């Protein structure tokens, strides 16, 4: 009886190890595939931005007598279409050695290619970007340092420089907290799933210039 139990435990253990190895290989393959696809899109996106961007002088709102009466900034962002997918710009995270294109419209299918704009915009100071926890995407997000710089370059060629002010975990079902600015005056948020998939590693950043 003991012999049968030992054999059953051995077989079960071996099956679990094999399943874990298969999952690990699958995740590595997915990460490498996503890296190739996102970098290919990034190259095309940069070329498109360079060819279409027009330098503009920064507006001095202090001299604008009508600024307080103007409509709030819209959440729409300029886009560039690559392979029938709209991109709103790209992220540069020097501390992680990452440069990634950002797809304008969020979907789970799009996340397999590159990070996606979850909501908001640069002009309304509430841009939220989501990505998978692939090592080639946001897998190392939680290791970023306070004060580290994140740069978002939009499809108009404007570069927005942000500084990290906090890193936290938010429960996956708590969308209100993800969108809330009550406890943190952030201008941009990056987030990804934890390994368990239950929580979201969330990086809050403030616009520097």
Automatic annotation (TrEMBL):
InterPro entries: Sortase, Sortase_dom-sf. Residues 1-19 form the signal peptide. Gene3D superfamilies: Sortase. The active site is at residues 132, 193. One of its GO terms (molecular function) is hydrolase activity. SUPFAM superfamilies: Sortase. Keywords: Hydrolase, Signal. It comes from the Bacteria. This is Sortase A. The lineage of its organism: Bacteria, Bacillati, Bacillota, Clostridia, Eubacteriales.
């Amino acid at each position: 009886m003991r012999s049968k139990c030992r054999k059953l435990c051995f077989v079960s253990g071996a099956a679990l190890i094999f399943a874990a190895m298969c999952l690990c290989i699958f995740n590595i393959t997915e990460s490498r595939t996503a890296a190739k696809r996102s970098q290919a899109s990034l190259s095309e996106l940069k070329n498109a931005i360079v060819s279409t961007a027009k330098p503009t002088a920064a507006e001095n709102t202090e001299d604008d007598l009508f600024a307080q009466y103007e409509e709030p900034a819209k959440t729409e962002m300029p886009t560039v279409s690559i392979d029938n997918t709209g991109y709103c710009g790209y992220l540069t995270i020097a501390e992680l050695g990452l440069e990634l294109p950002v797809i304008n419209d969020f979907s789970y299918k799009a996340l397999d290619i590159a990070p996606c704009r979850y909501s908001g915009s640069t002009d309304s100071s509430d841009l939220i970007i989501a990505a998978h926890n692939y090592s080639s995407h946001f897998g190392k997000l939680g290791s970023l340092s306070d004060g580290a710089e994140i740069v978002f370059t939009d499809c108009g060629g404007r570069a927005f420089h942000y500084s990290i002010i906090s890193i936290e975990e938010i429960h996956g079902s708590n969308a209100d907290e993800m969108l809330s600015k009550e406890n943190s005056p952030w201008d941009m948020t990056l987030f990804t799933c934890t390994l368990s998939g239950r929580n979201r590693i969330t990086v809050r950043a403030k616009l520097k210039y």
